[in-house]
Amino acid sequence: MSKTSKKSAAAARKERIEEMRRAEKARERRNRILTITISTVIVAGLVGFGAYALDSANDKEEAQSAAAKKPVKGEKSWDAKKLSQNHVAKRVSYPMNPPVGGDHHQAWMTCDGTVYTKAIPNENAVHSLEHGAVWVTYNKKAADADVKRLADKVDKTPYTLMSPVDDQAGAITLSAWGHQLSVKKASDPRVEQFFTKYVQGAQTPEPGAACTNGVTG
């Protein structure tokens, strides 16, 4: 091969190498652009989701706040200042049935979504109300389907308990510290309103106190 041919071949190889390098740099540039674009989209999506989640949380908090301020139609209320909170070791004669506050036993009924099929001591249940629980009670006037529906709801709701109270006036009664509501059906929309307002609600004398590890019967 002549010197001219060798030079031409070397120049051609050099050109191919340079072309390959240019192509590689172009691919790297495209990959960087693609990576930056994808990262930007992901970040924008995360920011958007975060803003949505924050807005949703704020909306939920506002809805709960509005529900807490709105009275539940037909509920009875007692002055919290007149409901004593002494621990006693004796039976207490309460002015309402079921009771919504007053002196009570030092041990609370376990109220972590607990369904009792037999009557429970008022004095222990009142202590649960002091901790912010809602106590659902019923008698023989309540339909079996309603009792089951309420039991399912209580079972899924911390800071609630349920038990029969045969001598109460209404078929179904919901009690919180200082507040009480009687309904005929579990489907009554006020049941949900009462739960929303009073499970660990503003009426709670000892918010955050335990509903677990209490007595169970």
UniProtKB/TrEMBL annotation:
Record keywords, A-Z: Membrane, Transmembrane, Transmembrane helix
Record's keyword annotation contains Transmembrane helix: yes
Segments for region (Disordered): 1-29
Pfam families in the cross-refs: DUF3105
Compositionally biased intervals (Basic and acidic residues): 12-27
Transmembrane segments: 33-54
Top-level division of the source organism's lineage: Bacteria
Protein name per Swiss-Prot or TrEMBL: DUF3105 domain-containing protein
Lineage, highest ranks first: Bacteria, Bacillati, Actinomycetota, Actinomycetes, Kitasatosporales
